[in-house]
Design brief:
The protein has 14 helices and 17 strands. By secondary structure, it is of the alpha/beta class. The radius of gyration is 22 Å and the shape is globular.
Length: 430
């Protein structure tokens, strides 16, 4: 299988060096997998991306040479402390924040439930939280859990035609009673990118906190919590080429003010007071390596990037432009298929409002049937509701098997898009 030629610079950031897709793919050993004699096509990234070899090496290196619990008076324990501190510094560069504002945890869902419980300690009956129909349930259920103490949940609707948030409805739902607005940076089901900076301003004007779920956005765009001015932002490294964990940014003032549930001997300073129990140290080392992989990609395309943050921004400039070319080809091909229902933004002129995750249905076929057909052809996609159940219910597809989801990231190629479209054309003849 051939790889895609390098794609030159981003239309919205000026000219920069090309993305070397052959180099990218060489970093991911799992891309060599074959299914039924055919090279595997990994379009399953929204549920978890593949990992580059430097991530697996970092995890192995930790387990072989640094494996110990923290804060001990001996060599491997001190090396564990250093490894965690280095990973925290890497994620601080990723978020553009202070390292003390970075919290590691088991996964996004667990961290969000822990944070909602801490925030809930200070809420009273009648206080309101705003959630959205577009979000993964991990950014809905932890807040709805506070209904037990009388907190009122307001849910923002969507514009069904393009699966974007109804901002007029959002403005109506934010009131003087609103204490927190929980919103996704990008939809894990239909790819919509929400105007989170604008939403943050609206929430802060009403005196509310803002919690941003950036799990799905993180592989597809750079994050700057200072520019967003959000109070909390969370993502999952296994969605951006790292291991299975969750990572939270929280403004220092909130991490210090709020009272997390914790055991008495645990440290009471930040960020340790938020990291319940013994952490997965080897995976934290892998998170560091995942951030450094993205930075190394940035240095490939822009050698003048002299800091990790600058290299991260360079990488995303290149990958956003490259993924846009794949997305344009994919959507054009999908829209030519008979009986295809496309969910979300489909006009290329508006692709800056979405990332490269696409969901469709074909006629009355259950998406599981389509995914199984593609899987037999070595093409990996997802089907169902992807935990965005409010959205699939709102679209009227939950009881019909949900959606078929296709996820592109920067290790995918034009050839792979062609293979997918050819397979879907074959399926559509059934």
């Amino acid at each position: 299988m051939t790889t895609t030629p390098a794609i030159p610079g981003s239309a919205n950031t000026g000219t920069h060096a090309s993305l070397d897709v052959a180099w990218v793919r060489a970093q991911f050993p799992s891309l060599q997998l074959r299914v039924n004699g055919q090279p595997a096509v990994f379009l399953d990234g929204p549920a978890g991306t593949q990992v580059p070899q430097q991530v697996t090496r970092a995890i192995q290196d930790y387990l072989l040479h640094k494996n110990a619990n923290t804060c001990g008076a001996f060599a491997t324990s001190r090396q564990s402390d250093q490894a965690i501190a280095a990973a925290r510094a890497a994620m601080a560069d990723f978020f553009n924040c202070d390292a003390r504002e970075v919290v590691f945890g088991q996964n996004m869902t667990t961290i969000t439930f822990a944070l909602s419980r801490a925030i809930g300690r200070d809420l009273r009956a009648g206080d309101e939280i705003v959630v959205t129909t577009l979000d993964h349930d991990a950014n809905v259920a932890p807040w709805r859990a506070l209904e037990e103490k009388g907190v009122v949940i307001r849910q923002v609707d969507i514009r069904e035609a393009d699966c974007t948030l109804d901002l007029d409805d959002l403005k109506k739902k934010i009131t003087a009673k609103t204490k927190l607005v929980a919103v996704g940076y990008a939809s894990n089901a239909v790819g919509t990118i929400n105007p989170v900076a604008e939403i943050t301003k609206l929430a802060h004007a009403a005196g509310a906190l803002v919690f941003i779920d950036a799990v799905h956005y993180a592989p597809h765009g750079s994050i700057d919590v200072k520019a967003l001015d959000c109070d909390f932002l969370i993502c999952s490294p296994y969605k951006f080429f790292g291991p299975h964990m969750g990572t939270l940014y929280g403004k220092r003032e909130h991490l210090e003010r709020l009272r997390p549930y914790k055991v008495r001997p645990a440290y009471d300073h930040i960020p340790d007071r938020w990291e319940t129990g013994t952490q997965l140290h080897e995976l934290i080392a892998g998170i560091h390596a995942a951030v450094d992989y993205i930075a190394s990609l940035g240095m490939q395309v822009e050698p003048a990037a002299t800091t990790r943050r600058a290299a991260l921004l360079a990488a995303y400039r290149a990958t956003v432009a490259y993924e846009r070319t794949l997305l344009t080809k994919l959507v054009a091909g999908l829209l030519e298929l008979p009986k295809l229902n496309f969910f979300g933004i489909s006009e290329p002129a508006r692709f800056s409002e979405r990332c490269s995750t696409v969901s469709v249905r074909i006629g009355d076929h259950n998406p599981t049937e389509i995914a199984a057909f593609l899987g037999d052809h070595g093409i990996f996609t997802w089907d169902g509701n992807f935990y965005a159940q409010n959205l699939t219910e709102r679209l009227g597809v939950e009881e019909k098997g949900g959606l078929l989801r296709i996820g592109l990231v920067h290790y995918n190629t034009v050839d792979e898009v062609d293979r997918l479209l050819a397979a879907l054309r074959e399926f559509a003849k059934k």
